Amino acid sequence: MKKPLSARTIWLTLVLLSTLNPQLSTVFAQGPLTPPGAPAPLFKTLAQIEPRTPISSAPFTITNRRSFYLTTNLTVATGNAITITANGVTLDLNGFTIASTAPSPTGTGILLSSGRSGVHILNGFVTGGVTNNGGVYSGSGFANGILHSGVLPGNVRVAGVSVSGCLNDGINLGSDDSTVAESCAVRVVGGIGIYATSVTRCTAIQCGIAAIFVRTASDCYGQSSTFYGLYANTADNCFGVSDSYIGLSANTANNCYGVSDSSIGLAADTANNCRGNSSGSQGVRATTANNCYGFSGSNRGLYAELATSCYGFCNGGSFGVYATYVANTCYGSSASGTGLYAYIANSCAGSSVSYTYHYNMPP
Predict the structure, then answer these.
(1) What are phi and psi of 49, to 5 degrees?
(2) What gap in Å lies between CA 273 and CA 266, rounded to an integer?
């Protein structure tokens, strides 16, 4: 009986036959070897991965409409760090810091030339070396953090930027057009903290003039050494503090709180659900006050033409609540003065350590 052929023997036999008979080679054909065309790229270009323009040194001037981003911290010894002279620019600080070591603060961290529009500045820090010593601002670094120049800008947005240690203003965009500051923080500036059309979720403290100066403010906190803590046409859910002037001032204030050491705590044409506290002047002063509370260390706790569902307290010899026209369902208390005074008082009460006073004269 013959021994079976091994697989190797069979394979070698087929190879030998294919060399003797070319027709058998077609059994092992693998298709054409010529490529159909040039190989296509397998990877994205650098421009596709990062289409923005990097900034790695300062001073730097942006002259074209495009998007830019910082690749590192930037420091200048004098003057401006970044100047924007084009419209339609996005500048992403990318979490980095723009700083100045100038011994005499004259420059600006980010300067917008006259009339810029369509500019977005995002995500980073602008710092200088200016300090506040009892209301006196001095030191090195920038004069301003972010500033417009000349004709006021339009459609400008600053978001997620922190500014500190500047001799003049922190973020100054003007308020005559659509300028917006969102989620920004300013600390220790000798002038205005944040100046824009609309400010949301921002904080500015240790400011030499007005901490927040806007048309509309919501969910903001401002503290000033010498002037307004927060000034707005409309303020919602805001808190303003001033060491020597009005804590919070607005045409319309909703759910706001103002504190002042020596002037009015909260001043408004219309105050709704607000609180005001002052050591030396009126706690709340409004044309119309609804559901408000005012406290004063020595003056009128709450002072309004029309007060409804309000409470006022004076820790000195003045009035708890003083309504020049009508008080409805109000209560006033004074440590040694008049609890409540009104030309017309409806369902009101007042108390004092020395005496209780109700004044209710028909019109």
Answers:
(1) -70, -45
(2) 12
* Residue 291, burial from CB neighbour count under 10 angstroms (0-12, 13-18, 19+): middle
Residue with tokens 């989620």: 183
20-66 per-position pLDDT tens digit: 555 544 555 566 667 677 766 666 665 666 688 999 999 999 999 99
Question: In this structure, how many other beta carbons lie within 10 angstroms of the beta carbon of residue 127?
Answer: 22
Do the beta carbons of residue 142 and residue 166 sit within 8 Å?
yes
Q: Can you spell out the DSSP letters for 143-160?
A: SEEEEE-SSPPEEEEEEE
Are the C-beta atoms of residues 100 and 140 closer than 8 Å to each other? yes
Distance CA 334, CA 37 (A): 94
SS3 content of the chain, % helix, strand, coil (to 5): 5, 50, 45
Q: What pLDDT score was predicted for residue 31? A: 62
Who contacts 320 (Cβ-Cβ below 8 Å, separation ≥6)? 300, 301, 302, 311, 312, 313, 314, 331, 332, 333, 334, 337, 338, 339, 340, 350, 351, 352
